[in-house]
Amino acid sequence: MDREEMSTVDELAAALGVAEHVRRTCGANWPVLAGLSVRWMDSLRTAGRWDQRKLTIFLNRRLYGADLRDSFLHELAHALTAANEPFRVPPHGSAWKRRARRLGANATATNFYPSLARWRREDL
Ligand SMILES: [Zn+2]
Known about the structure:
It is built from six helices and four strands, in the order E-H-H-H-E-E-E-H-H-H. It has a four-stranded mixed sheet with strand order 1-2-4-3. The protein is an alpha+beta fold. The protein has one domain (7-119): Zincin-like (2-Layer Sandwich), CATH 3.30.2010. Strand 3 and strand 4 form a beta hairpin. 48% of the residues lie in helices and 13% in strands.
């Protein structure tokens, strides 16, 4: 996976081996969510974030393996929630938690990612 290039939710889901699961879980929202942009970011503490204005998922360039998959699903749950809630809801409230669980993400606001911890130990 080329970390320099921007990709889409669809492409990253396929690269992570969760395309089928994610497509089923997102259901009718999949055609819209599939085309959303995923961009890599550099950050010391943030694993990822969903940018509602840019309709983009940002993921930490240093994440890999299970950490990358969990972070991706966490942010995708934000996008899925935004697509389904008519009003603003708390970012990690019950509407998000329900979708995060269905997507198979750790349904908490923060999570410990060994790949970022390793990076911190090495780079700081
Ligand atoms: Zn979040």
